[in-house]
Amino acid sequence: MVVAVVFPALGSAPATGQGVDAAAAKRLYGSALRRMPTSRALVALTFNAAWDEDGLGTVLKVLRQHRAPATFFLTGHFAERHPAAAQAIADAGHGIGNHSHSHPPFGRLTRRERRQEITLADEAIRKATGRAPLPFFRFPYGDTTARQIAEVNALGFADIEWTTDTNGYRGTAGGMTTQKAVKRALDALKPGEIIQMHVGSLDGQGPVLDAEALPQIIDAVHARGYEITDLRTLLTTGPR
C-alpha cells in the first residue's frame, strides 16, 4: 500500500500528524542508510532518474499492476526537462526523493556548490510536481563522506543509498542483460534490502533493462516470501 505523506519546506523536520514521527527522520541522520533497519522480510524498490524518461511508462505500469510502491530519486535537470514524467510519478502515488540538480560527483564541489545542487533540485521537483519531495537525498554515484552527509542532514534530508544496484543502467553495451539485472537484485536479497534501479538510458540508446527486469524482480521477491514495502514507512509511526 502506498502511504501518502505531506512534508513542509526544505530544511524543516517532517510535520507531525498523519502518522508521521518528526523524530523518525532525524534517527536516519549521521550515516548513509544502505539497508532498512528491520529483521522482517521486506524489500524496497528505488529508481534514479537523471537522463531521459525511457522505460518510465513501463515501470509505472508494472508497479501499478503489482500494487507495489517505489521511491524515485530525481535530479533537478530531469524534473525540468521532463516535468510530465515527474508529475506522473507523483500522481501514481510514489515517493520522490532528491538526487541533486545536475548529478555531479559531490567530492569535487565546494560546500556552497553542494548546497546549491540540493536546493535547486528541491525547487525543480516542487515546480514539476506541485508537491514537496521526501526528506530523502541520494548522492550521485554514491559519492558520500561523513562531512557531506552532515551537510545533507543540516538541510533536512536523510541520506538514502542502496544495498545493491542491478547495474541495468549500463545497458547491453555495458555487458548487462535483463537476467543479469534480476540476478543482482536477488543475490543481495535479505531483510531490509534497498534495490537501486534506473529509468532512462545513459546513452539514449538500447533497451531500458531495469524496466524489463522489474516484473521478474517483483515476482521472484514475492516467491521467496518477501514483501515490497514503501520507504516512507521509515517516517511513520506505523508497524515496522
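^ that was protein a. below is b, sequence first then the C-alpha cells
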Amino acid sequence: MMNAAARGDRPGGEGYRAGFGCLIGRPNAGKSTLTNAIVGEKVAITSSKPQTTRHTIRGILTTAHAQLVLVDTPGLHRPRTLLGERLNDVVRQTLMDVDVAGFCLPADQRIGPGDTFIARELADLNRARRTPVVAIATKADLVDKARLAEHLIAIDQLGDWADIVPCSAATGEQVADVAGVLMSHLPLSPQLYPDGVLTDEPDDVMVAELVREAALEGVRDELPHSLAVVVEEMTAREGRPADSPLLDVRVNVYVERDSQKAIIIGRGGSRLREVGTRARREIEALLGVRVFLDLHVKVAREWQRDPRQLRKLGF
C-alpha cells in the first residue's frame, strides 16, 4: 500500500485528519491480519490460535488526506486467568483512548454470545464517549454472497453502527474501503507521525512477537496460552566488517510445564530449530541485518496466575 510520501503528496494540510483507531473482536476474528493489510506491512503477528495478540501493536497508515494510527488489541473474552483479566483491561483502556473503533465479526462464523458481549461493551463506550464504531465483516472471501448478505443483516441487528463494511484481508478486497471509512471518523489534525513510519513498537517487542508467532505454528490448542517470550539481549557482534554486520539476539521462551517444554523443543531439538529458522528469517526482514538467534526454553510454573511472574514477563 503506497503512502503519501511515495506518491509525492504533501499531507497535513487544510482538512487533514489524523488520530487513533483500534480493531476489537473476539479471539481469532481476523484483527491482526486486517491490521497488517491496512498498513501494508507486517506489524502484528498472526496465527490460527486464539489469544495470539497480547500487546497493543500500533500500525500507521499515512495518505495524502489522513493518518490512521491503528491499534491491534488482544481478543476481548471471558477470562479464566489473571493474564486473561489483564488482557481485557488492555482492550478496555485502549477503547477509552481512541477516536474510532472497528468491530471485527468474521463472516464464516455465526454471531454468538462473545460478539453480543462485545457489542454491549461498545454500546457503553458510545454512550460514555460518543466514539464511533464501524462494524467490519472480516473473512468475506470464505463465504458466498448469500451467506455474506445474511451476516451483514445480523450485524446490523446487533447494534447501532456508524458504518458496516465487509472485507477480506487475505485477498485485499475492500481493505482500502475499511481504511477510508475509519479515517473518515478521525478528528481534524496534523500528522502525528512522520512519513514512512509504519509502527512505533520497539524492536525488542517486535522480535519477541515474531519468535512467539513461529513457536505457535503447529502446537496443541492449550499451549498458546502458556507461551511467553522475552528478549534478553540484542547486541551487535564485535569485530564484524562494516559491510557485513551481525546481530546477536538472545531470547527466552517460557512455558508453564515440563511437558510443554518438551513440545516446543521437539525430538532431539528438531522443533526448536524450525522455530529458530522461521523466526530468524522474519527478524532479519524486520531489522534489515543478519541475525544469530539464540533460543532457550524455560519453565515458569503457573505464570499466567502469578502477579510477580506476570510483571517479569511484561504483563
